[in-house]
Write a structure and sequence with these properties.
alpha/beta; Aspartate Aminotransferase, domain 2; Aspartate Aminotransferase, domain 1; 7-stranded mixed β-sheet; 5-stranded mixed β-sheet; 15 helices; binds pyridoxal-5'-phosphate; Cystathionine beta-lyase; Cys/Met-Metab_PyrdxlP-dep_enz; cysteine-S-conjugate beta-lyase activity; Cys_b_lyase_euk
Length: about 450
């Protein structure tokens, strides 16, 4: 198994002879930078590909003692066997065996040529945006994660990147924003918290037709590789926050990038090595452990989410979840993904009532983020999306009262009972002798299954 890592030695001083550099850097990228060879995805020794559930847990390591769990190489440096360097690893900013093991495993499960792991989902996006040059245009959505919005705003304010926020749920709207100046199209699907679906294949095709050099990058955080593989849908780059489903326990921050083009992988590796945002050995080990249980967690979270979405909808709330037939893009979502995920949102029609629901829930922790084994509740406009100013939120039709539920692996009946109690305490429902239904605060109504506009 070729575990050959990236390497530049950290210390760029005289100890590196030209010969050693030549050995370590066999490639030159488009901008003339020397680059190390790409580590290949790991693959089973007999070459057989298994179902994803099996691939998630199946790994082959090169540990000298055959450790079942890849050891944590908690070392910044690696001694060289000769004065001219050139060993597999020399400096952890450039490469570390624990990180390489994780990257090769991720490349395998993401069906990618190369995967890279960095310190957060936003660090992954930062690495991607370093491909951009002043004057480049980016076309992206109008319902983006707040942190993504913030980074793009920074780039448009300071780095002369022109960013077009459009409704990416309509490929014809995206098409109109594309031109030969488009360098990147940045997509999220489902969007968060409005849970709108984006047609990745249609937009990827239109983008490449408009400019064959333009890159389509997809944030796959909401679904994880277990449920969706954007590279197979036409994307050039997939990235996600490993802080969410991949790790699953909210005990680490990480970001993952994956590509199917070795040269593009090298270009993405360059800023990681140059800036040192590669994931640390301990966090790489922890993320590797989380990935092994991705299937069982996601299956449980998803089935709980469907129960809760059906419960809320049956009681008259306006619910956004692509696992519900009432979702206007149910068919589109299912044409791309293997499941609906475990994030949903609903509206009450009243900000104060929404606040009381969030505060009254006990099992549902008030927390940003999602993908954790514990269930979480939040008001995005007050928390994860507060970095988008109120005017922009209004322009993007983001309801201020919207509540986001990120469903965990607990018992579904307990979660429903706790939520019911919170709805009653908050005055969100009218009680009837045997049941309750959403109090009419103007918006808490069932969705129109025929219309896309209602979302
Ligand atoms: C959809 C989405 N993308 C990216 C990120 C950023 O990930 P991280 O917090 O790991 O930087 C988040 C974080 O919440 C997110 O929700």
């Amino acid at each position: 198994m070729d575990e050959r890592p990236p390497s530049d030695g950290g210390d760029d001083g005289p100890r590196k002879s030209a010969k050693a550099l030549g050995k370590a850097f066999s490639n030159i990228d488009l901008d003339g930078h020397n680059l190390p060879p790409s580590p290949a995805p790991s693959s089973p020794r007999n070459g057989k590909r298994y179902a994803l559930a099996t691939e998630l847990v199946y790994t082959e390591g090169t540990d000298q003692y055959n450790a079942s769990s890849q050891p944590i190489y908690q070392s910044a440096t690696f001694k060289q066997t000769s004065g001219s360097g050139g060993n597999e690893y020399d400096y952890t900013r450039s490469g570390n065996p624990t990180r390489t093991h994780l990257e090769r495993h991720l490349a395998k499960i993401m069906c990618a040529e190369r995967a890279l792991v960095v310190t957060s989902g936003m660090a992954a996006l930062d690495v991607i945006t370093r491909l951009l040059r002043p004057g480049d245009e980016v076309v992206t959505g109008d319902d983006l994660y707040g942190g993504t919005n913030r980074l793009l705003k920074y780039l448009s304010t300071n780095n002369e990147i022109i960013v077009h926020h459009v409704d990416t749920t309509d490929p014809s709207v995206v098409q109109k924003a594309l031109s030969s100046r488009t360098a990147m199209v940045l997509l999220e699907t489902p969007t968060n918290p409005l849970i709108k679906i984006v047609n990745i294949p249609a937009i990827a095709k239109a983008t490449h037709e408009a400019n064959f050099k333009a890159l389509v990058a997809v944030d796959n955080t909401m679904l994880s590789p277990y449920l969706q593989n954007p590279l197979e849908l036409g994307a050039d780059i997939v990235y996600e926050s490993g802080t969410k489903y991949l790790s699953g326990h909210h005990d680490l921050m990480a970001g993952v990038l994956a590509v199917n083009n070795a040269a593009l992988g090298d270009r993405l590796y360059f800023p990681i090595n140059a800036s040192g945002c590669g994931l640390a050995p301990f966090d790489s080990w922890l993320l590797m452990r989380g990935i092994k249980t991705l299937k069982v967690r996601m299956e449980q979270q998803q089935s709980n989410a469907l129960r809760i979405a059906e419960f809320l909808e049956a009681h008259g709330f306006r619910v956004r979840y692509p696992g519900l037939r009432s979702h206007p893009q149910y068919d589109l979502h299912n044409s791309m993904a293997r499941g609906a995920g475990a994030v949903l949102s609903f509206e009450t029609g009243d900000i104060n009532i929404s606040e009381r629901i969030v505060e009254s829930a006990k099992l549902w922790a008030i927390s940003v983020s999602f993908g954790c084994v514990n269930s979480l509740i939040s008001m995005p406009c007050r928390m994860s999306h507060a970095s988008i100013d109120a005017k922009t939120r209004r322009e993007r039709a983001m309801p201020e009262d919207i509540i986001r539920l990120c469903v965990g692996i607990e018992d579904a009946d307990d979660l429903i009972e706790d939520l019911s109690r919170a709805l009653v305490l908050a005055g969100a429902v009218n009680l009837t002798p045997n049941s309750f239904s959403a109090a009419d605060h103007g918006k808490a109504k069932k969705v129109d299954t025929q219309s896309n506009d209602i979302f």
